[in-house]
Amino acid sequence: MNGKYKALWLNEENYLEVIDQQKLPFEYVSKVLKTTDEVVEAIKDMTVRGAGVIGSVAAFGIYTACLEVKNYEELKQKASLIRKSRPTAVNLMWAVDSMMLRLKNSTNLADDAKKFAIELNDAEAKESQKIASYGADIIEDIMTKKNKKTINILTHCNAGWLAVIDEGTALAPIYEAQRRGIDVHVWVDETRPRNQGASLTAWELTQSKVKHTIIADNTGGHLMQIGDVDMVIVGADRVSANGDVANKIGTYLKALASYDNKVPFYVAIPESTFDFDIKDGMKDIPIELRSEDEVKYMRGVDADGVLREVLVTPKDSPAINYGFDVTPARLVTGLITNKGVCKADFEEIKQKFML
After folding, report:
1. Closest CA to 299 of 21, 57, 33
2. Which has the closest alpha carbon to 196: 155, 153, 254?
3. In a domain, 1, yes or no
4. What is the pLDDT of residue 250?
5. Could you say which of 124, 149, 168 is where a domain stops?
6. H/E/C letters for each residue in the chain?
7. Which tens digit of pLDDT belongs to each residue from 32-58?
8. Domains held by the chain: number
9. Per the residue annotation, which of 230, 237, 244, 275 is the catalytic one?
């Protein structure tokens, strides 16, 4: 690790370089972020996405800001811009606040920020490995109880290493299960309107040679009804102290279908995704409202191999685009964390994380 991760890294000039997720799956290119403004824009326009990676980029964004300022007071202004770049993913705020706290008494901002950002991200990568192990144990247990040779797992949005360094969250147990020799098949929700499942999750699974099938977002319930889903694993952008889960829009509907069909519904998260200040996620987790153009337009490659954006709705029809929804704790089978598996329950979360 040491500043070099799958989705982002410090390049030879010690600038932050990231995979441009807007270009995937059609083109693999990276983008160098040399200024605070470029870091903020990369978070806002979803060049980088996924709660964990947003936090990782934010930590290195503070380091980037340190290259532009003369003192801590100036840094606070830059940090505020980074902190406000996206409203729902709490990892972003956590990373900025953690960096600023550690830098408060620094006499060498740039060097210390680089060191602290690497330490923070190395720790996050190790947490991802623990999530992989705990989650794979659950996969093995389900296979044993159901006496199956292949396990079918449904996931929503992207929660692989593009989203959380360096194994991911929801996909981390799947990668670990594959390493253990388990035959895994993944149902990949397309995840409209940004299609993170169809583009990013499917791309990641293809790179790792994990069997998968892309499905329309509304297909999951039917697959559960006919017994073709053994478990659901999703990531999250914020989890409240009582276990309510904010994740990509559409997650709540998958949780309802899982509950009705008695399919285990797990949420995989690092500790940084908890917001212990929020006791009722249904009321207090902010939900990002994004541009209606994300609903009205779709991007893809045409028959000539040219990447295009096309209108798929009547031009004058309005659209609304909530980025996330909140799944109440009662629908969550368990939280797969770096400290083990616990129920989505205030007392269990409190005991596990020593609130």
Report:
1. 21
2. 155
3. no
4. 97
5. 124
6. CCCECCCEEECCCCCEEEECCCCCCCCCCEEEECCHHHHHHHHHCCCCCCHHHHHHHHHHHHHHHHCCCCCHHHHHHHHHHHHCCCCCCHHHHHHHHHHHHHHCCCCCHHHHHHHHHHHHHHHHHHHHHHHHHHHHHHHHHHHHHHCCCEEEEEECCCCCCCCCCCCCCCCHHHHHHHHCCCEEEEEEECCCCCCHHHHHHHHHHHHCCCEEEEECHHHHHHHHHCCCCCEEEECCCEEECCCCEEEECCHHHHHHHHHHCCCCEEEECCHHHEECCCCCHHHHCCCCECCCHHHHEEEEECCCCCEEEEECCCCCCCCCCECEEEECHHHCCEEEECCEEECCCHHHHHHHHCC
7. 999 999 999 999 998 998 888 999 999
8. 2
9. 237
Classify residue 21 as exposed, middle or buried by CB count within 10 Å of its CB (0-12, 13-18, 19+).
buried
CATH of residue 218: 3.40.50.10470
In one letter, which amino acid is 337?
T
Q: Do 30 and 70 have their domain in common?
A: yes
pLDDT of residue 324: 95
Identify whether 237 is a catalytic site residue. yes
pLDDT at site 52:
87
| Regions of the chain where pLDDT drops below 70 | 1, 354-355
How far is residue 175 from each of residues 124, 181, 341, measured CA to CA in Å? 17, 10, 18
pLDDT at residue 67 in the model: 94
For residue 298, being part of any structural domain is answered with yes
User: What pTM value is reported for the model?
Assistant: 0.91
